[in-house]
Amino acid sequence: MALIVQKYGGTSVGTIERIEAVADRVIATRDKGNQVVVVVSAMSGETNRLIALANEIVDKPPAHEMDVLVSTGEQVTIALLSMALIKKGAAARSYTGSQIKMLTDSAHGKARILDILCGDMEKDLQDGNIIVVAGFQGVDEKGRITTLGRGGSDTTAVAMAAALKADECQIYTDVDGVYTTDPRIEPNARKLDKITFEEMLEMASLGSKVLQIRSVEFAGKYNVPLRVLSSFEEAEGSGTLITTEDDEMEQALISGIAFNKDEAQLTISGVPDKPGVASDILGPITEANIEIDMIVQNVGEDSSTDFTFTVHRNDYDAALAILTRTGDEVKARKVYGDNRIVKVSLVGVGMRSHAGIACKMFSALAEENINIRMISTSEIKISVVIDEKYLELGVRTLHSAFGLENDGNLASA
Amino acid sequence: MALIVQKYGGTSVGTIERIEAVADRVIATRDKGNQVVVVVSAMSGETNRLIALANEIVDKPPAHEMDVLVSTGEQVTIALLSMALIKKGAAARSYTGSQIKMLTDSAHGKARILDILCGDMEKDLQDGNIIVVAGFQGVDEKGRITTLGRGGSDTTAVAMAAALKADECQIYTDVDGVYTTDPRIEPNARKLDKITFEEMLEMASLGSKVLQIRSVEFAGKYNVPLRVLSSFEEAEGSGTLITTEDDEMEQALISGIAFNKDEAQLTISGVPDKPGVASDILGPITEANIEIDMIVQNVGEDSSTDFTFTVHRNDYDAALAILTRTGDEVKARKVYGDNRIVKVSLVGVGMRSHAGIACKMFSALAEENINIRMISTSEIKISVVIDEKYLELGVRTLHSAFGLENDGNLASA
Q1: Alpha carbons A272 and A333: distance in angstroms, whole number
Q2: Best of B17, B46, B65 to disrupt the A interface by mutation (most A CBs within 10 Å)?
Q3: DSSP string covering A35-90, please?
Q4: DSSP secondary structure string, B338-382?
Q5: How far apart are CA A6 and CA A43, in angstroms?
Q6: Which end of chain B is more exposed for a tag (fewer CB within 10 A), N or C?
Q7: Chain A residues with CB-CB distance to B75 below 8 A
Q8: pLDDT attached to residue A413
């Protein structure tokens, strides 16, 4: 008998009809001989309705009372889903974050999970009950209600799976799995059967927003097999399994292509090179609470140096103003930027042990006359910054160059 | 420094605007040097909205999950009221029934309070916080959410006041106090400054639905001074204080006139009188789960006996059918009934020590040719059953006969 944790998001429980459909799916899972713990979000629209009520009173409501308010959203869903399960003949019981003793720190609105004490829940599970848990919410050591922040229900599900040593944590969402890239850009994008935690982290943080990054980190840390599935498909698909690297399986060189359209690039060139110059330049940016993503430094002419970095596009104007001031101070030759760029990244654990990936990437882009403005590499990814207008062409070119559409890039390992 | 518990019902917190007005009133109470604990209901309409959601799934939802569902209504209100108080500069904190440790039995939907452990609440109160408590809800010894049933927020407020030994429990509602009778029937009805718990119980159970009976019983048992006030009046009225009998005050003979239009009368006459005949007659009625209110038995002709009793008007047809069968069995002379009757009651602790009240009541009605069909008396009330068509005339006649419109019936004590 396996123990399965399932998580259903807001759109999956957005109406009574969908809640009934979730109940059917949960019962089907149980009927295959599994124990089931279900984690649910608030019905879609409900959290925003509650936030709007609070904002009628005050623009920035106190975070601890905001948590008391919005946590009612999931509480409504657990009650309704439990009712639907009981109506269909299943033994079920709901648990709020406080009842499950999901202990968090006191950072209201973005609390971190410290422990799960489970309370009576494990006994109820052993007694044959389906356990229905409110996602997104917890309780601090003083007994005050906390929330984990947006997407926190994924984290709740993974944390429950880790605490209960579940065999699998299934995240039901409105897509049927993780794709090699965004199918809206590359129609030949292929659903992946399997991906590693590390790859998923790179894919997620680079813009493939299927899962919350924190929940993937959590799953990787506690080695909880995570599966992304669609809650809207009639037939039960197998989705995409996110798990640890498996030595015995054939390993794809490249798992997917992620991209990010929210960035802007800034350059300061001809800076007299001396120790501490990097922090002179980047310090004022971070002090203005602007987050920096990629950073590249080249040695330029005359033993001066060039810096290029990217920030969120919303921060572009502010960052350019700061950098211009800095340019005067450090006597740089030139400060300039561009906010019509995109970042495209190849992701794959297979590239660790295979040379030539970067070279193949660059030449594929060159063949299409796509100019690379910036390059950054890590163990399992290569990112390039290109002009925004080449986004679609670039993604499709790489997708095809690495044979992602037909699983053709297996390493000969 | 006094400790005041205030309770605001659903209409008093029905909109954000009204919640802001409640916050102003609470702060005004605090600014007079009081500690304040506020108990609130769900915003009006919210409980019904939640019940409708559940009924989309199933007609009779399991009571324990229903409690999880509907208790979110008050949780929303405590968060919003706390936000409004904090915005206006007051220190405030919300508490759910579970956080306040309002311990109840496990009778979901109609739980009874066993104890209030208060948790951190008393310390927060001492630290100068306004405490905002979710009414209507509690938690059983297993940590499951319970609700006290309709009107339970009044009971929560009284229980809080008893546990904290509050100086006064103020129930804010949409009327400005308890009246000598219903002003819609007698325009001269006068607001009472003071009434005893016992009188209030008789008034409430007889149809003046200002307060939940259970909360009045609770207040009387723990001797919590209870005040009914309007939350919609601009100026702060003093409402009606419900308290223990006060020997030193001038005592009114009659406090008010209650009436009940929901009853029907049944009679079985000419029953051969022998031991056990009362239970032969009434037994089948109670076995059918029909509640009996007044019961009168007269010795009739030929050592036979007549029984007359009243039931809720909804149960009239069923009760008449049962009584007709019983009539055949016990060889009664006749079985008949009338569902167009009303009960009118004089209530007043003063009548304990004063004779002649009943006589004055009967002759006042006789002067208006109002026929009395049934009489029942207790220590502090006299009830008569009359034809429905005489309701308004009867109430006005008695109101005037006992000088209730101008406080004219003080006992010379």
Answers
A1: 9
A2: B65
A3: EEEEEE-PPTTHHHHHHHHHHHH-SS--HHHHHHHHHHHHHHHHHHHHHHHHHTT-
A4: ESSEEEEEEE-GGGGG-TTHHHHHHHHHHHTTPPEEEEEEETTEE
A5: 16
A6: N
A7: 68-69, 71-72, 75
A8: 33
Please tell me which residue, A300 or B267, carries the higher pLDDT value: B267
**pLDDT tens track for A355-387:** 788 889 999 999 999 999 888 888 889 999 999
DSSP state of A263: E
What is the full DSSP assignment across B156-208? HHHHHHHHTT-SEEEEEESSSS-BSS-TTT-TT--B-SEEEHHHHHHHHHTT-
Domain span at residue A154 reads: 3-174
| CB B339 within 8 Å of CB B292 | no
Specify the number of domains making up chain A. 1
The reported pLDDT for the residue numbered A103 is 96
Task: Tell me the shortest Cα–Cα distance from A64 to chain B, in angstroms.
Answer: 9
Chain B residues near residue A58 by CB distance under 8 angstroms? 83-84, 86-87
pLDDT tops 60 at residue A78: yes
Residue with token string 């790489």? A398
> In degrees rounded to 5, what are phi and psi of residue A148?
-90, 0
Residues B81-92 have a mean pLDDT of 98
Residue B12 lies in a domain: yes
- Of A57, A64, A75, Cβ closest to residue B16: A57
**More confident site: A370 or A251:** A370
Specify the pLDDT at position A412.
40
DSSP B329: H
Chain A residues in contact with B57 (beta carbon < 8 A)? 16, 19-20, 80, 83-84, 87
Q: Chain A contacts of B78, Cβ < 8 Å?
A: 68
In chain B, the percentage of residues whose pLDDT exceeds 70 is 94
d(CA B324, CA B336): 8
Tell me if B300 sits within 8 A of B270, measured CB to CB: yes
Q: What is the pLDDT of residue B206?
A: 65
Q: Is residue B51 part of a domain?
A: yes
**Cα A104 to Cα A101: distance, rounded to the nearest angstrom:** 9
Rounded mean pLDDT, A49-69: 96
Q: Strand B168-173's sheet: what is its strand order?
A: B92-95, B130-134, B35-40, B3-8, B168-173, B226-230, B240-243, B194-196
- Closest CB to A83: pick one of B65, B86, B99: B65
| C-beta atoms of B83 and A65 within 8 A | yes
Burial A92-105 (b: 16+ CB within 10 A, else e): bbbbbbbbbbbbbe
pLDDT value of residue A411: 45
Q: How confident is the model at residue A251 (pLDDT cuts 50, 70, 90)?
A: low
* pLDDT top residue among A177 and B209: A177
Interhelix angle B16-31/B63-87, nearest 10 degrees: 60
> Over the stretch B328-341, which tens digit does the pLDDT of each residue have?
998 899 999 999 99
Chain B interface includes A16 (CB < 8 A):
yes
* Residue B211 located in a structural domain: no
Q: Which residue has the tokens 């001809």?
A: A270
Counting Cβ atoms within 10 Å, is residue B291 exposed (0-12), middle (13-18) or buried (19+)? exposed
Among the ranges given (A311-315, A352-356, B97-101, B134-138), the one the predictor scored with the smallest mean pLDDT: A352-356
- Residue B81 sits in a domain whose CATH number is 3.40.1160.10
Q: How are strands ordered across the β-sheet holding A130-134?
A: A92-95, A130-134, A35-40, A3-8, A168-173, A226-230, A240-243, A194-196
A375, part of any domain? no
C-alpha torsion sign, points A133, A137, A141, A142: negative
Q: What pLDDT, on the 0 to 100 scale, is given for residue B411? A: 45
Count residue pairs from A and B with Cβ separation < 8 A: 105
Report pLDDT for A234. Answer: 61
Q: Which of B117-131, B205-219, B273-287 has the lowest mean pLDDT?
A: B205-219
